[in-house]
Amino acid sequence: MNPRPPQLFQYRLSVPSHRLFPGGHRGLRTNNGQLFNRHEPLMAHPDPRRIDLRASVLDVSGTYKVRAYRQPSVFDVVVLADMSASMGQTGQTPQQTIMLDGIRSIAQSAFSYGDRFSFIGCGASTEKPWLLGNCRHLGRLQAFVRQWQQHRLTATSLCWQPALSHLPLQRSLVFILSDFHFNAAQLKTLLQALARHDVVPLVLWQAEDYLNLPNWGLVNYQDAESGSMRTLFMRPVLRQKILQAFAQRRQNLQQLCRSYGNEPLFLTDSFNPMQLQRYFLSKA
């Protein structure tokens, strides 16, 4: 069964791009474009079609002036994904399926701008990162998706460090795709390493973990990393404590991410591109 076509979203970077190649984002280079930048001497930009007669007459040096425009440029778009066992849990919608929806949506949104897409999957420190680098073609993405569908997430720990060397050197748009169920020190180190990039933390949570709990009854929990099982007798007081713990976790994540200039986006049970659309519109 073929997966449904992904929904696309529009995104915007916080600063103009200085990349050489033309694309769909604000750029700093002067070349072909529609956004007026400044007047330049005709000898610097020999294009008589853009001569500005008024500016030329007003120039005291008597040289012809042409209108110079800013060239729209490209960006690199990167998904930095958590591939620990907790991201492989099943629920109303399996977490790995949600991740796949996100990867396909982000990648094809990048293609629509002419941007390059890269995927870096992080597992245990002893594992090599999953890599899809500098992808511009749908065929490469589809082959990667087929491999992803056959892969089982089993890493019992998470190490981001091996992935950092694969990130672009120039400023890029980096999506962190994870449930963020790891310690604050590890997240702080990661955000420090990504400081030169535009970072969007995508927090994937399952409603059945905290929102859809019963007031009374037995609930089985399994630690995805260790595989250990625990049975809890759910009652209103315990349910409220779990809700408060998740609310506190959400607040802590927001505070830590915001301290590095990044606003986390919380996605529950699904990847919704329209949430990302509103996210970038609110930042603009």
UniProtKB/TrEMBL annotation:
Source taxon at top rank: Bacteria
InterPro entries noted in UniProt: DUF58, vWFA_dom_sf
Domain DUF58: 64-250
Ranges in a coiled coil: none
Signal peptide: none
Protein name, UniProt field: MxaS protein
Organism: Methylovulum psychrotolerans
Lineage, top ranks: Bacteria, Pseudomonadati, Pseudomonadota, Gammaproteobacteria, Methylococcales
